[in-house]
Amino acid sequence: MIQKPKGTYDVFGLMGLEVRYLEKLFESIMEKYHYQYIRTPIFEVSNLFHRTVGETSDIVRKETYDFKDKGNRDLTLRPEGTAGVVRSFIENKMSSYPNQPVKTWYIGPMYRYERPQAGRFREFYQFGVEVFGDTDSYMDAEVISIPVNYFKMLGLKNIKVKINSLGDRESKENYRKSLLDYFKPYLDSLCDDCKERYIKNPLRILDCKIDKDKDFFKKAPKTIDYLNEESKKHLEDVLKYLKALEIDYSVDSNIVRGLDYYTHTVFEVEALIPSLGNQNVLCGGGRYDNLVKSLDGPATKGVGFALGMERLLDVIHNENIKLVDDLVDIYVVPMSENTKEQVISLVNYLRLNGFVVETDYLNRNLKGNFKQIDRLNVKYIIFVGEDEIKNKKVKIKDNHTKEEYEIEFDKLIDFLDDLEGSNYEEHI
Ligand code: HAM
Q1: Is residue 238 part of a domain?
Q2: Ligand 1, residues 102, 110, 111: which to mutate, most atoms within 8 A of Cβ?
Q3: pLDDT digits 0-9 by tens, 377-392
Q4: 160, 179: one domain
Q5: Whether the CB of 285 sits within 6 Å of ligand 1
Q6: 33 lies in a domain?
Q7: Is residue 426 pLDDT above 70, yes or no?
Q8: Which of 107, 238, 376, 395 is most buried (CB neighbours < 10 A)?
Q9: How far apart are the CA of 259 and the centre of ligand 1, in A?
């Protein structure tokens, strides 16, 4: 038997309903924020990720799916969404749009060659946003508010927003120097990867999962102590606006993020669920004011985030939140083989009028149809027999109250709409 590739999963059954619910809710929130949908290719030229995510990041060093196509081009399955959206922003000259800032959102699969475990896959879905333009710190707070409001609407309780600032280019450079000085005497005690990070990008050392519990690690310099006045003010303003948005947060100097492009604000939203272990970060993001320019675009600031759908679903299950009810409005029962065409036509008519309709596909007898109705969550049953067709009427049974009605075919939709109205309060 051929099995799915390691680190991937299939979506079907209840999970199919849950995933679609999560996607639709995210989409409806993005409509309220008036962000625009963007879709970029799943593969990009490899160099894009080297120049954005960063040569020294674990993602680019170890985790990308790289391949050559038949034209000998170096391509990579995207490990994250920001790089492609930035490329698209530049290539499509979105900086010249009259409507600024350019606020985009996306949902799509990402690929990382990581060791699969709970909450960590090789193909996973991210919901994210990227905003471009000369925005101030309110934009950082708004971007943070999107996952927070989303989680609130889903009813998640145990979540925590952690925020930090890496500062602007000058602050980041001062901090980099302080890390070089600090780690120099400990070089021999660092893991091999960190020795390389020390030379290429010392900030990355703070992301190390191997060295992170060592004593000297905990006393390493903190980004916040190296912020210049402008960067300090940016952070203070973000925190002020988060308060205005009634978002609880904690400032955590350990948040440096695993991608190279950030400046100023970086943030993560964690779920406080022990079973998720290290994979409890639901969402991460931040500001990247130099990224567009570094990819040869016009100097344009950026800020965004992405959240992992699989981890979110884990948390939802863990908190016993029921996302979906698989409701069927009407089940149409054919009472005789001779009425099949009329049944098919009625089913179609009801669906076109907006009802969720099921019927018999397996030529079941009446008992079999009732068993099927019991398996489904059916509100109304409509019986169509030869008599009903002759009299241009149908028999309707309320599957919960067991009340029965006989309705003329012409009046069916009005009748069903009225029933729905009278039951409305019961269903919310
Ligand atoms: P990231 O922190 O690498 O950031 O990923 C964001 C989220 O994707 C994580 O918090 C996690 O929920 C999920 N995730 C990452 N890797 C995996 C995996 N292997 N399996 C399952 N879920 C995973 C970014 O990707 C940035 N592009 C975020 C961003 C957007 N920053 C600015 N704009």
Answers
A1: no
A2: 110
A3: 999 999 999 988 888 9
A4: no
A5: yes
A6: yes
A7: no
A8: 238
A9: 10
Specify the pairing of strand 65-68 against strand 159-165: unpaired
Side-chain half-sphere of 164: how many Cα atoms within 13 Å? 17
- The reported pTM is 0.93
Q: If you measure from the C-alpha of residue 307 to the centroid of ligand 1, how many angstroms do you get, rounded to a whole number?
A: 6
Q: What is the dihedral of CA 86, 90, 95, 99, to 10 degrees?
A: -60
Query: Which 8-state DSSP code applies to residue 57?
Result: S
Residues 162 and 187 in one domain: no
Residue 380, C-beta contacts closer than 8 angstroms, at least 6 positions apart: 329, 330, 331, 396, 397, 398, 399, 416, 419
Nearest CA-CA partner of 307 in 136, 125, 99: 125
Closest-lying ligand 1 atom to the alpha carbon of residue 121: 20
Q: Are residues 287 and 420 in the same domain?
A: no
The stretches of 191-266 forming alpha helices (DSSP H) are 192-200, 215-218, 229-244
Same domain for 184 and 154? no
Per-residue pLDDT at 212 exceeds 80: no
Can you give the CATH number for the domain in which 336 is found?
Answer: 3.40.50.800
For 21-59, write each residue's pLDDT tens digit.
Answer: 999 999 999 999 999 999 999 999 999 998 888 877 888
Cα 230 from Cα 304, distance rounded (Å):
21
In a shared domain, residues 290 and 353: no
Rounded to whole angstroms, what are the CA distances from 271 to 176, 209, 258, 279, 308?
30, 19, 19, 9, 12
Instruction: For residues 256 and 210, state if they share a domain.
Output: no
What domain range includes position 179?
171-227
pLDDT digits (tens, 9 = 90+) for 136-177: 999 999 999 999 999 999 999 889 999 999 999 999 999 999
CATH of the domain at 289: 3.30.930.10
| 282 and 376 together in one domain | no
Indicate whether residue 83 lines ligand 1 (CB < 6 A).
no
Q: Is 213 exposed, middle or buried (0-12, 13-18, 19+ CB in 10 A)?
A: exposed
Which ligand 1 atom is nearest residue 312's CA?
12
In this structure, is residue 6 part of a structural domain? no
Whether 26 and 74 share a structural domain: yes
Is the pLDDT score of 66 beyond 80? Answer: yes
